[in-house]
Amino acid sequence: MYFERDSTHKIGSFCKDIGARVLLLSIQNELSNPDELAVIKTSLEKYTTGAILYDDILEMPDAEDLDTAAYFARQCQADLILAYGSRETFQAAKTIALLTRNDVFAADLQSSTLPLKKPPLPVITVPAVPGMGEESSPLFTVNNTEARTSFYSSDYRLYPAMIFVDPNITAPLSAPELARAGIATLSANVESILSKRANEITTSISLRSIELITRNLVHLINEPGNHAARMNVCMASVLCGMAHSNSMLGLSFSIATATHNLTGLNFFTAMGILLPHIMEYNLTTSAGKYVQIARALDEDIKDITVIEAAIKAVEGVRKIFMELKVPQRLSEFEIDKASLPDIAEQAFMIPYARNTPRELDRNEIETILIAAY
Q: Residue 161 carries which DSSP code?
């Protein structure tokens, strides 16, 4: 992991030790700072034998897009993928890295019997938008745009070979974009802490990430020139990914995925809207963890009961959302209430939905959606 302001012109000197021919991948709707992409390409061309830009994917890629990109990577004999963007770009890069080295199609990756014996191409991630840390995770996905579903999986071989963070890349982001990314980081951290697979290490990392977001995001939005705050928000995203890579995500992630697939609502926005309601759902089964979250949110929990302190954690999240002026209801968007049962059905089918401390069924997911509506 490499952190330094205004350092993208040096990235080629680091990449040359990992690969000589680089596929530079960027999905168009995540390209928030094209000038920095040009700087990265120039640096790669200086230190490697070639840098081939692949920006033919407009938005969330489907299986055919990924197959086409993998074919292109093979044809240009790429031995390294550098992903510049945010979550969709990083997930696509990791899927393409698997497909390029293994003779399979993206749509077939769901088969548990599929042999993926050959190691994937190494991947370097350069976040242009801080988010829920997928720049530091081995998570990959294949989307079926016709069926409006997504398949998620992970492979330890897909941990990035390098994470290159230049906080100033995020400078062009607007206040709403920063707020949306920040609440996604917060949501994924809470998911990681509540996870059935959480442990002392992942929880400690997530709590530190929550502290960084709580203490820096509003300052950064109000003072875009606050370089320390920008660095800390970017650091929070990387830490978030390190935590949930090991503890796994859960119910917020599953419902947000289904909501995005079926309604088109921005995934980060959906994560934020759902978080307080899912926290309320899990409150009685995870009160002790909520006390830790309340402390990380800088809530005053002296001389009150554990349950009262847990409630403070939920209130603390809502206070942050109000301060950031982010949407807090699904009804604020063009989402038909009649679609909630379908969202609940798809969310329940995503395996991560079972990674929650309280057992649930489709009806309970629909109840959470109604509360969030």
A: S
Q: Are residues 62 and 211 in the same domain?
A: no
- The tokens describing 106, both together, are 């993206």
Q: Which domain holds residue 336?
A: 173-372
Question: Is 189 in the same domain as 159?
Answer: no
- On whether the pTM is more than 0.85, the answer is yes
305 and 319 share one domain:
yes
Per-residue pLDDT of the chain (373 residues; tens, 9 = 90+): 999 998 999 999 999 999 999 999 999 999 889 999 999 999 999 999 989 999 999 999 999 999 999 999 999 999 999 999 999 999 999 999 999 999 889 998 887 666 788 999 999 999 999 989 999 999 999 999 888 999 988 899 999 999 999 999 999 999 999 999 999 999 999 999 999 999 999 999 999 999 999 999 999 999 999 999 999 999 999 999 999 999 999 999 999 999 999 999 999 999 999 999 999 999 989 999 999 999 999 998 888 999 999 999 999 999 999 999 888 999 999 899 999 999 999 999 999 999 988 888 999 999 999 999 9
251 and 142 fall within a common domain: no
Where a domain ends, among 125, 145, 169? Answer: 169
Query: Which amino acid is present at 241?
Result: G
Helix (H, G, I), strand (E, B) or coil at 71: helix
Q: What is the CATH number of the domain that holds 260?
A: 1.20.1090.10
Q: What is the DSSP letter of 122?
A: P
Instruction: Tell me, rounded to whole angstroms, the distance of Cα 1 from its chain centroid.
Output: 17
